[in-house]
């Protein structure tokens, strides 16, 4: 019975009372002077330095898609009003196939579309070290996380086109996700 309870506790995630938990916006700046590097056969080109503190809304692992060796996990994150349990309780989430989508289960939007869209992100995570990957692996949904590193473009010699990070928080659809090389990861 104890192992079953532990599994249920893990998948339930971390809960928080209503209120904005992460008021700050992600920080992005030029990655000038940083040389390219290689990982898993990909050439990595840093596009911008990036730091984010956010609430973890979802986590999905990948093993067999074309980018799984490079980015083995996607994190759905929210900040500002999307770190508030009162808002999150009015939305539902779906994550898979490298997409993270929100839905409104009722007819009433808790916030305007643009506010929701500009305060959530699906991040394809490239862990810089095994320790970063382990920390991500053991972080529960609902946790407040902090990540820093680079938004990147990854090119594979056998790839059709480069896998490029979005550089804005307001885009939608295919290509709107952040592809992030994570050098530091922590949770509160």
Explain this structure to me?
- By secondary structure, the protein is mostly beta strands.
- Helix content is 15%, strand content 40%.
- The strands form two sheets. The chain has a five-stranded mixed barrel with strand order 3-4-7-10-8. The chain has a two-stranded antiparallel sheet with strand order 5-6.
- The two termini are 29 Å apart.
Q: Could you give the order of the helices and strands?
A: HEEEEHEEHEHEEE
Strand order of the largest sheet: 3-4-7-10-8
User: What is the 3D form?
Assistant: globular
Query: If you average the pLDDT, what whole number results?
Result: 90
Give the oligomeric state: single chain
The percent range for strand residues is 35-45%
- Distance between the first and last residues' Cα: 29 Å
Task: Please bin the fraction of helical residues.
Answer: 10-25%
Structural class: mainly beta
**Alpha carbon gyration radius:** 17 Å
* Major β-sheet profile: 5 strands, mixed, barrel
Count helical runs.
4
Topology, number of strands: 10
Are there runs of 5+ residues with pLDDT below 50, and where? 4-10
């Amino acid at each position: 019975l104890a192992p079953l309870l532990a599994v249920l506790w893990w998948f339930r995630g971390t809960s928080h009372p209503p209120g904005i938990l992460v008021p700050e916006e992600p920080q992005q700046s030029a990655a000038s002077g940083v040389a390219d590097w290689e990982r898993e056969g990909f050439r990595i080109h840093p596009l911008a330095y990036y730091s984010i503190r956010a609430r973890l809304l979802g986590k999905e692992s990948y093993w067999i898609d074309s980018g799984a060796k490079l980015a083995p996990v996607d994190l759905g994150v929210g900040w500002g009003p999307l770190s508030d349990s009162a808002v999150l309780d009015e939305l539902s989430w779906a994550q898979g196939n490298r997409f993270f989508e929100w839905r409104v289960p009722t007819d009433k939007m808790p916030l305007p579309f643009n506010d929701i869209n500009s305060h959530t992100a699906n991040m394809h995570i490239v862990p810089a070290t095994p320790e970063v990957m382990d920390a991500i692996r053991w972080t529960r949904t609902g946790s407040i996380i902090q990540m820093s590193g680079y938004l990147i473009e990854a090119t594979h010699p056998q790839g059709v086109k480069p896998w490029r990070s979005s550089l804005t928080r307001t885009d939608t659809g295919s290509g709107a996700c952040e592809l992030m090389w994570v050098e530091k990861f922590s949770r509160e």
